[in-house]
Amino acid sequence: xxxxxxxxxxxxxxxxxxxxxxxxxxxxxxxxxxxxxxxxxxxxxxxxxxxxxxxxxxxxxxxxxxxxxxxxxxxxxxxxxxxxxxxxxxxxxxxxxxxxxxxxxxxxxxxxxxxxxxxxxxxxxxxxxxxxxxxxx
Length: 137
Hints:
Elements: H1 2-15, H2 19-22, E1 35-48, E2 58-64, E3 69-74, E4 88-91, E5 97-103, E6 107-114, E7 117-124, E8 130-136
Parallel strand pairs: 1-8
Antiparallel strand pairs: 1-2, 1-5, 3-4, 3-6, 6-7
C-alpha cells in the first residue's frame, strides 16, 4: 500500500509540473541579473557650544551630505583616468543616501562629489545582490 501511495505522489508530481519548469531554454540561473549599489555619504560634525559653561558641551554628531553628485563608471578607473560620461549619475537624498539600481554584475568605479571634496571607490557587484559603499568626510 505504501509503495502504491509513493508511486501516486511521484506520478502526480511529474505530471503537475508546468511547461516553464521543464523548458531547457529557460534557465533563471544562467540569465544575467541586475544588481544594486547603495551609496551613503556622511561627515563628523564637531560642536563646541559654550553658553554658560564649557563643561561637557562639546561633542560630535554624524551628519549626512544631501545633494552630493554620485557618478557610476564601468570598470576600475582612477579619477584622473576617467574620460567620457558616466553610466549613471544621481544625487544623494536628505539622509545622504543614493541607490543605484539595475546595474549588471560587474566591477564599477563610484565617484562622489560633495562640497567637502571628491572621493572614489571601486566595487564589484553580484547577481541579485545589493552592494554598499560608505563615504566619510
